[in-house]
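[Q] Does anyone have a clean structure-token version of this?
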Amino acid sequence: MLVFKNRAFRFISFILLLTPLITFGQSDEDIQTEIRLKIEALRGSGLMVKGEPICCGKSISNFYTNRFFEPIWTNMLRDQLIREVKACADDGLNPEDYHLQVIEEMTMKSDLNYFEQAGLELLLTDSFFLLASHLMSGKVNPATLNTDWKVNRREGDPVELMTKALLSEDIPGALNEIRPIYKAYNRLKEQLKVYQELQAKGGWATLEEGSTLKLGDQGNRVLAVRDRLKKTGDLLPYTNDQPEVFDEELEAAIKHYQKRHGLEVDGALGKGTIQSMNVPVEDRIEDIILNLERSRWLPQDLGDHYIMVNLPAFELEVVKDSQVNLEMEVAVGKPYRQTPVFSSNMTYMVVNPYWTVPPTILFQDMIPAQAKKPNYLTSLNIKVLNSAGAEVNPSEIDWAGIKGRSFPYTLRQEPGPNNALGQVKFIFPNEYNIYMHDTNHRELFVKAERALSSGCIRLSRPMDFAYYLSSLQARPLGKVQVDEIVKSKSNQTIILSKPLRVHMQYWTSFVDERGVLNFRKDVYNRDERLKTALASEPTL
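[A] Here you go.
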């Protein structure tokens, strides 16, 4: 959320020119005194106005103290704020989180006394600060939901923003300035409207389950599928004299639906596709709202040139100047070895890498396997090294007797065709020891769901990635040069003279560069916790 900084105002002189809310016979001095009394209460045990808690106590206290408790809300500014609070529903936020009902009720009264006017004043300011905070960096702090979610959320000063709004007498302009600037955010907002309109029209009917429908089948179930796909724009209108027949156009529409929902793309209507189509429109709206919130957690500037990995989509994109230059499928961490969310800088890549077995895999996989099969490590070309780096014969170690997390050796796999990292790995230093790499298990990328690794990112086209990065350097390496290094089978490090920012993110709903709305399975079961947090009372 916004970082509330303690800065003194430098605009007291001009603000006195603003016309406060109509006082109905009360003097400005009476209102100022009541604002001061409420601020003093706020600094102590907190403050409720008409049953609504004032959340942004520190900022409000600093704000009014520095302007001698002078009221700021003119009728015009108040009405602007009310419209903006109502409009925040388009961002997937709840207008009632910002005191809307109470503010409107108090505004409709024509005989507010100074006590009530002071209360309305603080409600309006709290509403602005809260809304600005949530638009800037989200209602929910992701670190409170997942300890492995590390992001540099956007920061700002709500007091400075209020100052700007007062100077320009433009509340909408100030709030629009802090909304996320990403195309992905605005595209998702547009799709929220589309699905809300679908909901208003009744959504879609539940499809009857049964045997798999495929090309050439016919009947009422085919008609129902056509109607379902028309509702979401997967099946476009075309001339068709036999709508009850499963034709090639319907098959193409099912493939389109399957692709944007992360399902196996076979063009048939099987159990998994039916279950996906039967998710009600209300749930899809909720998916969009959750991911609008996640988009607000991003830093304001992703960089002009960066790598983005969407974990639930199992996809990587390299983006330069808002254009996707390279994209590929990836495999990510298993649900019990989740890939974390964070950002870092990719600084080098290693061709023909060694693989040092990490602690988790060492204790959970390697040691038990070697204890059962004495030739296990040797068959994988993995060497056992002591603390001095000397090689130790595996037969000299009592593998079955190893207890706890104590192991005085390092397991290191030599470069080669069986190496777990394949031909190349890409390093972006981070506290989780997560990196990207090739794999000797290419069959992984046939699967639609690819939460299959031990946490690192496995790439479907690692050499294309290596060629791309090599071409960016101060002394670019061509494809032939990179291939020659691979053929040499020698371990070589290539330092990136132009490091690239890497963003690991988690979106279960997003709009791709083709403008297509996508949904993905919540592979790490994170949506439910976020849904609960968004429904809670707003706090700072």
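[Q] Thanks! Anything notable?
[A] The mean pLDDT is 91.
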